[in-house]
Amino acid sequence: MHLFRSSLVMLLLLTLITGLAYPLLVTGLANLIFPWQANGSRIYQDNKLIGSELIGQQFTRDDYFKSRPSITAEMPYNSMASGASQLASSNPLLLNEVTKRVQMWQKAVDNDQAVPVDLVTASGSGLDPHISLQAAYYQVENIAHSRQLTKDEIKQLIKENTITPLISFLGKPVINVFKLNQALDRLSAEKHKRVSVQ
């Protein structure tokens, strides 16, 4: 009986410490030290939540940079259904899907470059908000044409929004598509305003 009581007391004590006190402490410290990150890196526009820096979005309009594919259930970039397709690279279903995506990009983009792999394959989570620099530059000509901007202006925008790892071996530079498209909207609005004033 004594052993049972000791075990029960230990279970309750550890449950309170690891299941309640520790998570509350960590959450409290995170909100105190890193409030924006602790609350999901949410982005607002005119006091309206429009997205998060951490979760990709599907951009369908021709005048926006496209994200990498998402295969989450029910809808793309569904954070409640994060996950990969689990299809092996030898699976014909994956090969067919990637082939369709390559053909779609070749029809949509007017250049002779090979389609970057991250534009035709989903990430492991299905939520990745980033694309490679190669994938961003691949879309420059289309975006410039759709927005009536120069290719140099778009390339400068990519350069300004490139995220480079602190140490080079930790990864390659990437672009957050959501933030890049926001910057694109700002650039278009500024240019339109300048043209209107003249």
Automatic annotation (TrEMBL):
Molecular function GO terms recorded: ATP binding; P-type potassium transmembrane transporter activity
Claim: Glycoprotein is one of the keywords in the record: no
Keyword Methyltransferase found: no
CC per GO annotation: plasma membrane
Annotated InterPro entries: KdpC (IPR003820)
HAMAP family xref list: KdpC
Subunit-structure text: The system is composed of three essential subunits: KdpA, KdpB and KdpC.
Protein name in the entry: Potassium-transporting ATPase KdpC subunit
Organism name: Proteus columbae
